[in-house]
Automatic annotation (TrEMBL):
This is Alpha-1,4 glucan phosphorylase. GO terms for biological process: glycogen catabolic process. Phosphorylase is an important allosteric enzyme in carbohydrate metabolism. Enzymes from different sources differ in their regulatory mechanisms and in their natural substrates. However, all known phosphorylases share catalytic and structural properties. Allosteric enzyme that catalyzes the rate-limiting step in glycogen catabolism, the phosphorolytic cleavage of glycogen to produce glucose-1-phosphate, and plays a central role in maintaining cellular and organismal glucose homeostasis. One of its GO terms (molecular function) is glycogen phosphorylase activity. It catalyses: [(1->4)-alpha-D-glucosyl](n) + phosphate = [(1->4)-alpha-D-glucosyl](n-1) + alpha-D-glucose 1-phosphate. It comes from Alteromonas naphthalenivorans. The keyword Cell wall biogenesis/degradation does not apply. The lineage of its organism: Bacteria, Pseudomonadati, Pseudomonadota, Gammaproteobacteria, Alteromonadales. NCBIfam families: P_ylase.
Length: 825
């Protein structure tokens, strides 16, 4: 939006002269420097400060309007919010980008340079955390009363360095030099009890009363990050809790004498919010992680209750009308017994009343079917850290088992299967089951995933409570993932179809009629070329690799995991390389294969795959026989701000997970929105992308979910593919030599072993040939410039469904039942 349009906003935004003055004032008065001395970092901070005043005014008005209208609100509980950078996004959403850029230019500063000063807020691992960030953007844009609750990690996801091809993890320090966006709210500090023991008391009325005597108490300090909606009317908040030691000393426990030593645990309070766990899709089962989860849930619930009580006092009857809590995966599931504890032990409601409220408040989103990612906590660990919560979980389970018995009388097999408690050597608490039982709605994140949640993961729950399990397909915010990250394409689209698409992405469909238009094709592909040039510059600067912008930019960006199959991509690259060595005239369109991926630090094979990509890259990039037909680029430290540069420059989007394993994917949506063509399996949201763009505009390959199941059931034998397909054999054998790792034979052998000796769990070999065929089809399609341009335009045009505004609309209508709230001046 331009400055003129922004003028129509209620809180009269700054014009260029005022903006200039504000920046200079902050340089002088907040940063103690001046226009001559300031470096880019100071300019960045001063620019942030210049808009923060307006942001805070919007926040104040929003909070006032929500309070006076006594609005029902959604509370999005997530252990992760992967926000990335905020300056460009906030400027875009306030309609101030052009004003700011002009003001800075007159001060002799390039806005793009100072934007690079901002550290990413990397408080998340991957898709799940980024989804939370897109959702809060949409919630504010759609003027919905909402608050995000999470953890104020001191260190976000590790910074990745690549040394001699291998991943090294370095700490991320996103707020070492201060963060201009966050506001500390000491007036809203909460206290969180931990450890200790439970005392049972018998009240006069015969009511059993439980009293938890915690062994230690930690303090939760809230930091608020304003979340500016597009066009700047609603400003919601993301409230992140930082842990600190409490001034409070628990005399109760102290006086219990000997009990103290047995029960008091010495968690250093500050360590709770120190660092984000870097594991995606694996459950580590670490005590500190459970404490983190409880810490932020407890703080957040108390915060919600404080706000509710301010309006409604002790009358709990309206709580579930005012409050809905969305659990982003099971990480915040401990909030369920925590709310029950507060209602039963503190507010003294009877169990049924409390359960009636609680199960109207919570809804749960499932993001994975991978068994190793389903959270389970040892009952003994919960008992030690949260003794009262374990009792409550047992009580919930006891009552639930009675319900199961009604539906399936005396069926112990089904009881064992559905129980929150998994019996075995060590009793475990299944957080997924707790979440389904304690919520009124459960959703998967793409149609196919939600179908599998019902049929494979929770079929009995679906039978017990028909309609509770549902689907909300993920989405992405087009403000960040097109408007802000791809300004050239955005301007071209504005010119062609008008500028209201960022709030109504279905408007992009109007581009379809230009898909065959030669002039528009040229303009569209020229923008792509320019974006490729910018990325090529970045690649040269960071890796000293020269890439040809006329080559196909083929991009795979996502966490490194076997199920995402970066090694399938790698094997294909090796096969191409081999074809070129065997036949120097092998006809192919030059390709640049670009990767971005972090591996969980303890995930050995994932790190081996990163190493292999880098070693193969070294060899190919420096082999003159390749004649620049293939380049392989691994861009280190993949993160939101790097994605913003890679996505606009991509021609091909690699979405090649084993069918049935990727719940949704959201990178697939971002890339297609920016005109990249997907090569993908029928997995997650790829299925819905294919439906939208049509079979001619996507390259689908590989086994379907049904075929994957069938092959597994009939005994999948990867060696058959190895012996039957000479190219597979050749590339796998190549990994065993020292060709790519001179002097170190066997350095890449773990990949071969995983695919042959360890059974190729993700069926890489089964899909290899069909993947190669899809790649050949891509090569052919790219040669036909008009055809490719048409495909790219159609991909952009057909992404309307995948705006996170549509996801939020689905949540609102089907689950949250919220109404927008107009913000009064
Ligand atoms: O969630 C991802 C899924 O793998 C994607 O398919 C999906 O699109 C997104 C959003 O729904 N899951 C994650 O990103 N999961 C994690 O990052 C994670 C983090 C901690 C613990 C377990 C999983």
């Amino acid at each position: 939006m331009n400055a003129k349009a922004a003028k129509t906003q209620p809180s009269s935004p700054l014009d260029k002269a005022e903006f200039k003055a504000a920046i200079v004032k902050h340089l002088h008065c907040s940063l103690g420097t001046d226009e001559n001395k300031a470096n880019n970092h100071a300019w960045w901070k001063a620019t942030c400060a210049a808009i923060q005043a307006q942001v805070l005014e919007g926040l104040r008005k929003t909070q006032k309007s929500h309070y006076f209208n006594d609005t029902r609100a959604v509370h999005y509980f997530s252990a992760e919010f992967l926000m990335g950078r905020l300056l460009s996004n906030n400027l875009q959403n306030l309609g101030l980008f052009d004003v700011a850029s002009g003001a800075l230019k007159e001060l002799g500063v390039e806005i793009t340079d100072i934007m690079e000063e901002e550290p990413d807020m990397a408080l998340g691992n991957g898709g799940l955390g980024r989804l939370a960030a897109c959702f809060i953007d949409s919630l504010a844009t759609m003027e919905l009363p909402a608050i995000g609750y999470g953890i104020h990690y001191e260190h976000g996801l590790f910074r990745q360095e690549i040394k001699s091809g291998a991943q090294i993890e370095r700490p991320d320090s996103w707020r070492d030099y201060g963060n201009p966006w966050e506001i500390c709210r000491p007036e809203s500090i909460q206290e969180v009890p931990l450890f200790g023991y439970v005392e049972t008391k018998y009240g006069e009325s015969g009511r059993i009363q439980k009293e938890w005597h915690p062994g230690s108490i930690v303090k939760g300090i809230p930091w608020d990050i304003p979340v500016v909606g597009y066009e700047g009317k609603t400003v919601n908040v993301l409230r992140l809790w930082q842990s600190d030691s409490s001034d409070y000393f628990n005399w109760d426990v102290f006086n219990a004498g000997g009990y103290v030593d047995a029960q008091r645990e010495n968690v250093q309070a500050e360590t709770i919010s120190k660092v984000l766990y870097p594991n995606d899709e694996t459950e580590a089962g670490k005590e500190l992680r459970l404490i983190q989860q409880y810490f932020f849930c407890s703080c957040s619930l108390k915060d919600i209750i404080r706000r509710y009580k301010r309006a409604h006092g002790d009358d709990w009857s309206r709580f579930a009308d005012q409050v809905v809590i969305q659990l982003n995966d099971t990480h915040p599931a401990i909030a369920i017994p925590e709310l029950m504890r507060i209602l039963v032990d503190r507010a003294e409601l009877d169990w049924d009343q409390a359960w009636g409220i609680s199960t109207k408040v919570f809804a749960y989103t499932n993001h994975t079917l991978l068994p190793e990612a389903l959270e389970k906590w040892p009952a003994r660990m919960i008992e030690k850290i949260l003794p009262r919560h374990l009792e409550i979980i047992y009580e919930i389970n006891h009552r639930f088992m009675a319900e199961v018995d009604k539906k399936w009388p005396s069926d112990n097999r089904i009881k064992a299967k559905l129980s929150i408690i998994e019996e075995g050597n060590e009793k475990m608490v299944r957080m997924g089951h707790l979440s389904v039982i304690g919520s009124f709605a459960v959703n998967g994140v793409a149609e196919m995933h939600s179908r599998l949640v019902k049929s494979d993961l929770f079929p009995e729950f679906d039978a017990l409570w028909p309609g509770k399990l549902t689907n909300v397909t993920n989405g992405i915010t087009p403000r960040r993932w097109l408007k802000a990250c791809n300004p050239e394409l955005s301007k071209l689209i504005d010119k062609k179809i008008g500028s209201d698409w960022p709030k109504d992405l279905y408007k992009l469909e109007a581009l379809e009629k230009y898909a065959d238009n030669k002039t528009f094709q040229k303009q569209f592909m020229q923008v792509k070329l320019n974006n490729k040039q910018l990325l090529a510059d970045e690649i040269r600067e960071s890796l000293d690799i020269e890439v040809d912008v006329n080559a196909i930019f083929d991009v795979q960006i996502k966490r490194l995991h076997e199920y995402k199959r970066q090694h399938l991509n790698l094997l294909h690259i090796m096969a191409l390389y081999r074809r070129l060595l065997e036949n120097p005239d092998y006809d192919m369109v030059p390709r640049v294969f670009i990767f971005g991926a972090k591996a969980a630090p303890g995930y050995k094979l994932a790190k081996d795959i990163i190493y292999a990509i880098n070693k193969v890259a070294d060899k190919i990039n420096n082999d003159p026989r390749v004649n620049n037909k293939i380049k392989v680029v691994f861009l280190p430290n993949y993160r939101v701000s790097l994605a913003e540069k890679m996505i606009p420059a991509s021609d091909v989007s690699e979405q090649i997970s084993t069918a049935g394993k990727e719940a949704s994917g959201t990178g697939n949506m971002k890339l297609a929105l920016n005109g990249a063509i997907t090569v993908g399996t029928l997995d997650g949201a790829n299925v819905e992308i294919a439906e939208e763009v049509g079979d001619d505009n996507i390259f689908i390959f590989g086994l379907t979910v049904e075929e994957v199941h069938e092959l597994k059931d009939n005994g999948y034998k990867p060696y058959d593919y190895y012996y039957r397909d000479p190219e597979i054999k050749a590339v796998l054998d190549w990994l065993e030599t020292d060709y790519f790792t001179p002097g170190k034979p066997g350095a890449l052998v773990s990949i071969k072993q995983s695919l042959l000796d360890h059974g190729d769990q993700y069926m890489v070999l089964a899909d290899f040939r069909s993947y190669c065929d899809a790649q050949i089809a891509i090569d052919e399609a790219y040669r036909d410039k008009a055809r490719w341009a048409k495909m790219a335009i159609i991909n952009t045009a057909k992404m309307g469904k995948f705006t996170s505004d549509r996801s939020i609309k689905d949540y609102v209508e089907r689950i949250w039942k919220l109404s927008p709230c107009k913000i009064e001046n």
